């Protein structure tokens, strides 16, 4: 095993400068969790380096400040380990070849190091702290937990969850899950705050209970930076995204083999959809079980909002002219930023996407006009704490019901923005956007053009069932308006707001997905 002293040399002096100037500026933009992909890096600095002794290896938890040509800097966490021979299964984890203490090998992302993962969990369970050069890493652990033994076998048996995500999640058998936050921000992380609160209210063993967390306290800074969230693992049958993609793929196949005609099927207003109004042919093609599950998801969402609105710490607040103005201001800023990003990325987009991109750019004024309408709306509903980044990937299926996870909020927003109270209809709109994503994503493997009409029908009726079941649950809640015009108006604004958010998110993180929000904006504004 490489000595700690030898490995530590890699983060000092000339080697540190090479990491900062040459290696990390190339490595970070290739990571799924790095949010600054579409920005030009100006400077990169390792501002913290915490030595972390594993059982069979030595790791360093690096904290990195990235400054860009424009805009505010960001901070990231990158734990790193050394190995003489890289694991061929994780080529993306390799950061650089190095020679330290006379030994040749590679530095790699330590989340792929079994020994680091085990040491990290033991550290949390121990509730100890570790000193770095500019601060302290502190572990906080739920003492009453039954997983108190740092020598338990499950600690040694862990893996990195393979999902397309903004953070890194480490799974310890099917008992515990540790989410490591990559992008760092000072202040309370809503993922920890909300999950602790929901568990405390529900007392439901199956809710993702927060068992501990790791925070970093910088010397002379009052606010902590949350690094990791340890939760109890919820046994599940996969997320609602995979479940939905499976359903809609079968639906498209059923459509093609049934030779049904879509021309007689009318769609008017999503808010009027009820089970009885879904045409028989669609019930047959979609399947009753899926429709029932979507209704269950609407109910679960309503229950979540009722819980969040009921806690004294999360007291609902009325809308006000000042808040409505600030909402418009922030939607206007996001629109300008994301449309500018689209303009800059135009030449890099494939031809098939360019037409929608140009259409969207032409709609900028229309988008801003719709957002501006929030300023003068007379709103009778209230604002509550919401999930904030609600989509099908944030819901785990458990047989006949669902568990909601990942209360972290939208990764493009600051932590304080994510903790603001908002209209619960924003979560509803985000889930509807997710149904739109699913209908498009599943369509991409088919070549038959007639399926587009069927995709729209699926999206319309499934979203309608979700809304009606949600409304049934919350209709008498104080936070929900009884005015249909208000519900409709807010939903329209939030649907467009989420699509504009997605435009920026996809251009910065997954450019190959940008066609979906572009199509969403075009379809939404062209009617
Ligand atoms: N409490 C939990 N129980 C079971 N699986 C979980 C739990 N929390 C997260 N997961 C799994 O980890 C994945 C990523 O978690 P998530 O919190 O959504 O991370 P991210 O913020 O990076 O998207 C989820 O899609 C799910 O498969
Ligand atoms: O990583 P998070 O889950 O916190 O959320 C971010 O990434 C999501 C994608 O992984 C992104 O969601 C968008 O794509 C989904 C399909 O992959 C789709 O279901 C969502 O409706 C769509 O918004 C999410 O917006 C982003 O914050």
From TrEMBL:
Its EC number is 2.7.1.175. It comes from the Bacteria. One of its GO terms (molecular function) is transferase activity. SUPFAM superfamilies: Protein kinase-like (PK-like). This is Maltokinase. It catalyses: D-maltose + ATP = alpha-maltose 1-phosphate + ADP + H(+). Residues 27-113 form the Maltokinase N-terminal cap domain. The keyword Oxidoreductase does not apply. Belongs to the aminoglycoside phosphotransferase family. Keywords: ATP-binding, Nucleotide-binding, Transferase. It holds the Pfam family Mak_N_cap.
């Amino acid at each position: 095993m490489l000595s700690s002293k030898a490995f530590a040399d890699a983060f000092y002096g000339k080697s540190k400068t090479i990491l900062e100037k040459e290696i990390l500026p190339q490595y970070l933009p290739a990571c799924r969790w790095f949010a600054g992909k579409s920005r030009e890096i100006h400077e990169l600095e390792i501002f913290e380096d915490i030595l972390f002794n594993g059982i069979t290896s030595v790791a360093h938890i690096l904290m990195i400040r990235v400054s860009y040509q424009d805009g505010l800097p960001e901070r990231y966490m990158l734990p790193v380990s050394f190995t003489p021979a890289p694991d061929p299964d994780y080529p993306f984890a390799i950061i650089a070849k190095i020679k330290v203490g006379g030994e040749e090998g590679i530095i790699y992302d330590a989340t792929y190091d079994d020994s680091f993962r085990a040491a990290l969990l033991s550290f949390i369970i121990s509730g100890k702290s570790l000193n770095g050069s500019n601060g302290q890493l502190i572990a906080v652990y739920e003492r009453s937990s039954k997983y108190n033994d740092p020598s338990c076998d499950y600690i040694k048996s862990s893996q990195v969850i393979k999902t397309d995500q903004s953070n890194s999640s480490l799974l310890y058998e099917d008992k515990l899950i540790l989410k490591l936050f990559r992008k760092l921000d000072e202040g309370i992380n809503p993922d920890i705050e909300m999950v602790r609160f929901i568990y405390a209210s529900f007392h439901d063993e199956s809710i993702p209970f927060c068992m501990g967390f790791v925070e970093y306290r910088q010397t002379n800074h009052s606010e902590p930076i949350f690094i990791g969230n340890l939760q109890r693992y919820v046994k599940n049958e996969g997320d609602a995204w995979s479940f939905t993609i499976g359903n809609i793929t079968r639906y498209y196949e059923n459509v093609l083999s049934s030779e049904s005609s879509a021309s007689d099927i009318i769609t008017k207003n999503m808010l009027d959809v009820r089970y009885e109004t879904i045409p028989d042919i669609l019930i047959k093609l979609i399947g009753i079980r899926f429709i029932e599950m979507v209704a269950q998801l609407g109910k679960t969402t309503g229950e979540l909002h009722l819980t969040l609105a009921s806690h004294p710490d999360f007291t609902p607040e009325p809308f006000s002219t000042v808040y409505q103005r600030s909402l418009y201001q922030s939607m206007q800023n996001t629109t300008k930023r994301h449309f500018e990003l689209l303009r800059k990325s135009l030449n890099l987009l494939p031809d098939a996407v360019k037409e929608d991109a140009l259409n969207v750019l032409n709609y900028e004024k229309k988008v801003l006009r719709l957002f501006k309408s929030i300023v003068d709306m007379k709103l009778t509903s209230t604002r509550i704490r919401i999930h904030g980044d609600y989509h099908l990937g944030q819901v785990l299926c458990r047989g006949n019901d669902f568990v909601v996870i990942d209360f972290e909020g939208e990764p493009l927003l600051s932590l304080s923005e994510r903790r603001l109270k908002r209209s619960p209809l924003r979560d509803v709109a985000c889930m509807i956007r997710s149904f739109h994503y699913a209908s498009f994503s599943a369509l991409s493997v088919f070549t038959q053009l007639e399926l587009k009409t069927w995709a729209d029908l699926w999206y319309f009726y499934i979203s309608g069932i979700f809304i009606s079941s949600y409304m049934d649950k919350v209709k008498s809640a104080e936070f929900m308006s009884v005015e249909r015009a208000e519900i409709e108006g807010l939903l329209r604004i939030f649907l467009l707001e989420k699509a504009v958010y997605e435009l920026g998110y996809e251009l910065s993180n997954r450019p190959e997905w940008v066609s979906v929000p572009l199509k969403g904006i075009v379809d939404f504004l062209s009617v």
